[in-house]
Protein 1
Amino acid sequence: MPYLPIVILLVFLVSVSEAAAQSLAFLAHQRNSLTFVVASWLMYLIIVLLLMQSYKHKGIGYVNVLWSGMTTLLMISIGYFVFHERLSKVEWIGAALVLTGIALITVHNFKEHS
């Protein structure tokens, strides 16, 4: 159990890094800027390094599900608050289901390791 909070923190950092990388790639597209492209690539390098650390503590299945879910929620938030994108009711429901899935697998993993 002592490793699960570390994995959650590492995967959160991976998700934040990916959200930053995707935002930089979006800006690179919007502004046709090589600087943003290079910055995005550097963020993906950080992601790989953080993933390698997380795999020391937990398997790829759990890490990937947690990473995908967290990144999805972060990208929805960035799209909404930074880029002023709006979500439909169905998309809000989908986001709630993603959050529920993250909670379920995390609670299950905490119980499994206690």
Protein 2
Amino acid sequence: MTKDQKVNKTEETVIKFILEGLEKGELVWQKTWNGSTGILPINHKTKTAYNGLNCYLSWVALERGYKHNEWLTWNQIANMKGLTKVGSGKFFHLEDKDGNTVKGEKMIKKDEKPCPVEYWKLNHRLRETGKYFTDKDYKQALKDGTHVRADFQSWWSLANVYYVYNVEQSTLPLPKVRKAKKFKDTGAEKIVEEVFKGYKNAPDFSSMDTDRACYIPSLDAIRVPTPEQFKSKHNGTGGNHYAHTCFHEATHSTGHETRLSREGVTNLAMFDEHKKRYANEELIAEMGACMMMAYHNLDTSETINNSQAYIKGWLSRLSDDKSLIPVAIRQSNSAVRHILGI
């Protein structure tokens, strides 16, 4: 990364996490993990899922051996323990309901380090006057009919970076550990069928007697070898290889102009003109495939080596611009959510 490129703490953490894993010859997001809370990180208090780059929290849970993939801020921990924050800025302390001062170690286990997460904010500005609207006021203006969408310029911006702890790092009572599901080693073809059935505005999908898998933007079509071809090539694990390949191409398809409109898909001359950006699109597709495999609890132990080599090869084309890694993760997360409708 060049000295002129700025990253927030979340990006910095994720880049380091991935590069260290690749140096060790492993992809942490594709290790077989069957945590009882599921592959999507959720906020322990609100029960909402983290998205975008914040999905890396699942990898942290995997790496640290947590049984729970639930996270919360320091303030949320204090709130759930019935504590009140007295004072402001750096000069504050916590009090219980009886007014007694409570020390930090009563909330967080000793020497436990938090993880940074991004919070993005949607901004709106009137094109004519330049007046800024909050998202709430923007929606109200549309509802009241005083303005239409075309009157506004809207964009996302990074509002803040917060720090969260896994629930196991806190002194809160732990949730009941649900029995983890066994990894699926059969039924991958059925899962792929269900995924495409639920994929809104899905591309044309078919498996045929071919030696390569691809997504064709001009036709908005996915073509992959037949399940039988995968089975003959990967004895006993062909189903999972078939699913991984289908998920890779499905992730590519979300870049179509009628869906998420990514330049790596909409610009058909991308490979020759911008190999670095095309490499980014391949990272998005492979990361998306890994996330989809984990989401559907499909065993990735037989597909890890292929993904490691594939991603490492494309990463080498990014030169010093490692800032594209967080971009790829955010976009792959958006792609997976688009496919699954979540």
Protein 3
Amino acid sequence: MVSVNLKGIGVRPEVTVAPDDGLISFSNVLVNETADKSFPITNVSSFPVNFELVSKVAGVDNLSKQRQCLLVPSQGTIKAQATYEGKIVFQPDHDSNNYCDQLLIDIPNQINAKTVYLRG
């Protein structure tokens, strides 16, 4: 048996999101029409990270029970030091000023969770 002393620095995954305030607004969208917006998720780590987009808190629901915001894709992998374009499709089926969603960008072992707020 041999003992070896190792020294190193532990690293954790980290991403940044734009816009900095985390607010994505769709403004006015006609009933039964769709609008989409993209937002960048940048991996600032030196290794690939897996992510999942998770809806945490939603406002008013569509009458059809179909989600008012679709996340495309809802999960994936971002290469080291790369930027990934997340896409959100907003599809209201009735008139309301209360369409909203809180979207968590879930990265395993990330210390500071990133959140995006959607409003339509």
